[in-house]
Write a structure and sequence with these properties.
Blueprint (H helix, E strand, L loop, with lengths): L4 E2 L14 E3 L10 H19 L3 H20 L5 H8 L9 E10 L2 E7 L5 E2 L2 E3 L6 H13 L3 E11 L6 E2 L4 E10 L10 E8 L14 H12 L6 E2 L1
Parallel strand pairs: 3-9, 7-11
Antiparallel strand pairs: 1-2, 2-8, 3-4, 3-6, 4-5, 4-10, 7-9
Helix pairs in contact: 1-2, 2-3
């Protein structure tokens, strides 16, 4: 069973969304909010219909589906239907999950973390992959941008469904790719997105975590992969 949910709102500049939902911390979530699943599926079907529409009537029906999906979200959250509709229509074509990449970089037994300027919480460096990038290039770029450090992605630790982690639940469905990275050259320095950057001993990691970006499970899996090169990739 799912734990009770509480709703809060926070500004999400990286995704372009004005709101999201906060879930209480706890064990790994095995299912998502049904109304959000329905709204996302309707959004996906509507965009596919718009992409293949051959006449104004098909276009009109697809646009109405987007409105219905937006109204479902608005009825179950603190978002306005028009704000949801703007977010839902920002993704043209066939809708697929977004891809978030994260780096676990260890140096002398310490783990690289950044403090997000947006919420003041700590996370593994990373962010959305850009179109045209390979996953490894995306995570190396994100680390460089957020920390000033050059890293090399050595292996993948895990592939996660962001819906099935405790913490903040965004409007968009996303997959999270976690890489084990080797630190290289560069001086640690914060960026526009990060207020602090540092390596921390495993036993003295700062808190709280920015839970949608990095959950305790991600750090635990990264430590295990760092200690055992033969450990298999984890995935949802």
């Amino acid at each position: 069973m799912l734990a009770a949910y509480e709703y809060v709102h926070f500004l999400s500049i990286r995704t372009g969304l004005p709101w999201s939902w906060q879930r209480r911390e706890g064990q790994i979530v095995s299912e998502t909010l049904k109304w959000l699943d329905w709204a996302r599926e309707i959004q996906s079907l509507a965009h596919t219909s718009l992409h293949y529409a051959q006449n104004p009537f098909e276009t009109s029906r697809a646009q109405r589906l987007l409105e219905i999906a937006s109204e479902i979200v608005a009825a179950n959250s603190e978002m306005e239907a028009q704000d949801v509709l703007i977010a839902f229509t920002a993704q043209p074509g066939y809708i697929t999950p977004k891809v978030d990449v994260r780096a676990a970089a260890f140096r002398d037994g310490e783990l690289l973390l950044v403090r997000e300027a947006m919420d003041g919480r700590w996370t593994l460096p990373g962010g959305w992959a850009d179109v045209g990038e390979t996953p490894s290039v995306a995570v190396e770029r994100e680390v460089k941008e957020e920390t000033g450090l050059t890293v090399h992605a050595n292996r993948i630790v895990g592939v996660y469904d962001a819906n099935r982690l405790p913490g903040e639940l965004p409007l968009y469905h996303a997959y999270k790719l976690l890489f084990l990275c080797e630190p290289g050259d560069g001086d640690l320095k914060p960026s526009e997105e990060t207020s602090e950057v540092a390596f921390f001993p495993i036993e003295e990691l700062p808190s709280p975590l920015s839970s949608y970006r990095t959950a305790p499970r991600h750090i635990q899996d990264a430590i295990a992969a760092s200690n055992d090169p033969d450990i298999p990739v984890v995935f949802d």
